[in-house]
Specification:
The longest helix has about 40 residues, at about 185-224. The chain is globular and about 70 Å long. Helix content is about 55%, strand content about 5%. The chain has helices spanning about 5-20, 30-40, 50-65, 95-110, 115-120, 130-140, 170-175, 175-180, 185-224; strands at about 30, 70, 80-85, 150, 165. With about 220 residues, the protein is mostly helical. The protein folds into two domains: about 5-85, Orthogonal Bundle (Arc Repressor Mutant, subunit A); about 95-200, Orthogonal Bundle (Arc Repressor Mutant, subunit A), CATH 1.10.10.10.
Length: about 220
């Protein structure tokens, strides 16, 4: 199923991704906590001023789309909400911690360069360097379900291109993944880089399996 959101919905989901990671003891979130998170003046672009009724309407829309559920604990009289967008038992979408962190920051702050994304995701997921950010962005650009991210044409005077998410109607009107990937040499480069990502994942899995085999053999030798 193709994911289609609007700007307000990405702001609410971005807040949920952020608070789930940075303040897990306060998650799930009440309507008031969601409103405060949406209206923060730091780490938000653009800054908004939603009132509680607006946030309730956004939450209701996301509940209908099955991206949010009410999760009120026993004894609590205040409704609380949590996302089921990805990496939950209710969602078929599985993203790495780094990939979800990138979407979170793109939802909350709009288009950004890989360098900016590395800095701004530091509280959510660690990236060793900018190249690791670019590899995670590539995975999101070439996801099997749909393209989640697109690379914008480099602006005059900028050293780096910016990346933006493609999951809202507003983003779709700005650019589409077909426009970004239409250049043949760049498409070939992206294909090669994706193969590298997959190979690295395979190597990591093989190393883990090898360590498990070594541990098992050591255990057998100790018992003999």
């Amino acid at each position: 199923m193709k994911i289609e959101l609007d700007f307000n919905e990405t702001r609410v989901l971005g807040v949920m991704f952020e608070k789930e990671s940075t303040t897990p003891d306060q998650y799930p979130l009440s309507l008031n906590a969601l409103m405060l998170g949406c209206n923060q003046k730091s780490n938000r672009d653009p800054v908004v001023a939603f009132d509680e009724s607006e946030v309730q309407a956004i939450v209701d829309a996301l509940v209908k789309k099955h991206f949010i559920i009410e999760s009120t604990g026993a004894g609590s009289r205040v409704p609380k909400y949590q996302h089921r967008f990805a990496n939950t038992e209710f969602s078929a979408l599985q993203l790495s911690k780094q990939e979800l962190a990138l979407l979170c920051v793109l939802f909350l702050r709009g288009a950004q360069t890989p360098g900016e994304l590395r800095t701004r995701t530091a509280r959510l997921a660690g990236f060793a360097d900018v190249q690791e950010v670019e590899m995670a962005l590539l995975v999101l650009m070439t996801h099997s379900d749909q393209a989640f991210v697109a690379k914008l044409p480099r602006e005059p005077g900028r050293r780096e291109s910016r990346f933006m998410h493609l999951l809202s109607e507003e983003a779709g009107r700005v650019i589409s993944p077909e426009v970004v990937l239409s250049n043949e040499p760049e498409s070939l480069a992206l294909s090669t880089e994706k193969e590298i990502v997959l190979l690295r994942q395979d190597v990591t899995m093989l190393r883990q399996e090898l360590e498990q085999v070594k541990a098992h053999l050591n255990l057998r030798n100790e018992t003999q």
